[in-house]
Amino acid sequence: MFESWRGVLGDIKPTYRPGSLEDFIRLLPEGIGVIPLTVGIKSGTEEEFRQALEVYKEKVSELASLRVDLIHIGGAPPTMVHGFSGEEEIVRELETKHKIPISTSGRGQIGALHALGVKSFVGVTYFKDSLNQIFARYFTEAGFQVAAMEGIEVPFEDVGRLSPEEIYKHTKKAFLKHRDVQAIYMLGSGWRLLKIVGLLEQDLEVPVIYALAAKLWDVQKRFHVRQPVKGYGRLLEKLP
């Protein structure tokens, strides 16, 4: 129904929080169209993430009716709470029903970690310990060694107000507790972190995998496009 010369992405955002969509479109190669929809997650609790699955499925159906070329289910927690194998089952069901490739934040991030040769990492999040344990288990099921998932104390609705310097400090502190890992993984699209990704990689000498970079890498790969971006970390500079 809608066309763009390199492909059209149907993008489902978890929250109405501004920032991530604007940054994604700004860094996306020319010729890839985006049709965004939003689920409207507000509290960031496990219960809300689980309940949101049905809303996500409705959004997938809406995008499928528009005949997009790829659908991205944004927000790692809403699918990660169902476990690695549970997420695989959800994706398989939706792809079978709609005959359109489905990507999730988690699957894209796993692909990016593999592409960088990462087997062990320390994770940082803005969630509570109960959810962080679920996220760690998801990646352990996917075959990774997770040293820790370190949450920063901040209300879910205020994540976008964290300064890049606060994010840098929290991330560096988490890494220095587990400096034998191969990478840093930053869970969540709410971080405003583009300013400090390069600094973290420079100072700590490991790659930083975060939602925006993994999504850009995944979308380019699936659309058979290759346009490296400098200044925002090894994944986007190398596009392995």
Please provide a written account of the structure.
The protein has 10 helices and 8 strands. With 240 residues, it is α/β, with parallel strands linked by helices. Strands 2-1-3-4 form a 4-stranded parallel beta sheet, with helices on both faces. A 4-stranded parallel beta sheet has the order 6-5-7-8, with helices on both faces. The two termini are 32 Å apart.
Features:
alpha/beta, four-stranded parallel beta sheet, 240 residues, globular, 8 strands
User: What does the largest sheet look like?
Assistant: 4 strands, parallel
List segments where confidence is low: pLDDT < 50 over at least 5 consecutive residues: none
Our measurement of the CA-to-CA distance between the termini, rounded to an integer number of angstroms, reads 32 Å
Could you say which structural class the secondary elements and strand pairing correspond to? alpha/beta
**What portion of the residues fall into strands of 2 or more residues?**
15-25%
Report the order of strands and helices: EHEHEHHEHEHEHEHEHH
Largest sheet strand order: 2-1-3-4
Q: How big is the Rg?
A: 17 Å
The counted number of beta strands is: 8
Task: Count the DSSP helices.
Answer: 10
Question: How does the SSE layout of this entry go?
Answer:
Elements: E1 7-13, H1 20-27, E2 32-38, H2 46-65, E3 70-73, H3 76-80, H4 84-98, E4 102-104, H5 105-115, E5 120-125, H6 129-141, E6 145-151, H7 164-177, E7 183-186, H8 194-204, E8 208-210, H9 211-222, H10 234-238
Helix pairs in contact: 5-9, 7-8
Outline:
With 240 residues, this protein is an alpha/beta fold. The protein has helices at 20-27, 46-65, 76-80, 84-98, 105-115, 129-141, 164-177, 194-204, 211-222, 234-238, and strands at 7-13, 32-38, 70-73, 102-104, 120-125, 145-151, 183-186, 208-210.
